[in-house]
Every structure is written in C-alpha cells, then in structure tokens.
Design goal:
Structural class: mainly beta
CATH superfamily: Jelly Rolls
Number of strands: 12
Number of helices: 1
Radius of gyration: 14 Å
CATH architecture: Sandwich
Helix content: under 10%
Number of domains: 1
Largest sheet: 8 strands, antiparallel
Distance between the termini: 44 Å
CATH topology: Jelly Rolls
Length: 136
C-alpha cells in the first residue's frame, strides 16, 4: 500500500486550456496499469481545447456547474455527483460555466504510448458562448 497525503497543484498548460485551470494528478499511467486520473479545477469561463481519447474518458463532477460539448453541437450541463462518459475517439471539450467554477476527476485508460489523448484546437469564444446559451 502507498498512502499519498497530497499531490502538488499545477497550472494547466495554456496550449491545451483556455482560462485558469488547475490540476492535481491522482494517478499517472505506468506499466502495467494504464489508468490516468486527475482532479481538474476550472475557474468560470475556463475550458479544455477540443480533444479525444483513444480509449474514451470518464468525468466525475465533484463541484460546481460545468459543460461538456461534442463536435455535433450536443452540450450537457453537469453538476456535482454526475458522471459523463465520452466514447473512444469522440472529439469533445469540458469546462466551467461562465459564472460558476467546476471541478471534476478526469479518468482515461491509456495505451502503450501514454494516456491516449489527442489535443486539438481551442474551443472558440463563439462556440463556448453558444454552448452556455443552449445548455440551460
């Protein structure tokens, strides 16, 4: 058993996120296990870039109110205690609403090359504003 009492908080890289986002790694993918898990905190208006995962992603919302959107324009509003599962290869984004922070535990099962995430372009302000207005 390994008891980890805390992990350092890191600011998420601006080339993958818009706004202020903070990460605490819970588990990094190390052989033979391939689970990557992190507590991710988004300030109001902050969000990920578009991205996909080779083996899908599960998000467990721990605090606040957030949005998860897909390329086809589907957007769900999420809150603490809810779970969103993004299937393998689905391009999506997630983040806080424009007025409320959101935190989630993000979990992915990686592949032999890492966590299996493909990072894409930022979600535009227009795409985000549309998501906020249509997700009520």
């Amino acid at each position: 058993m390994e008891h980890i009492t805390s992990t350092p908080t890191a600011k998420a890289p601006s080339e993958r996120f818009t706004g202020d986002v903070y990460l605490n790694m819970i588990e990094a993918p190390t052989e033979p296990a391939r689970l990557a898990a992190a507590l991710v905190r988004f300030t109001p208006g902050a969000r990920t870039n578009w991205h996909s995962h080779a083996n899908g992603q599960t998000l467990y919302i721990t605090d606040g109110i957030g949005l998860v959107g897909t390329r086809d324009g589907n957007v769900v509003r999420v809150s603490a205690g809810q779970i969103v599962k993004c299937p393998a290869g689905e391009e999506h984004w997630h983040g806080a609403t424009d007025t409320t922070l959101m935190a989630h535990i993000a979990m992915v099962v990686g592949d032999a090359g890492g966590d299996g995430t493909t990072w894409l372009e930022p979600v535009t302000d227009e795409q985000y504003a549309t998501a906020v207005s249509t997700s009520n």
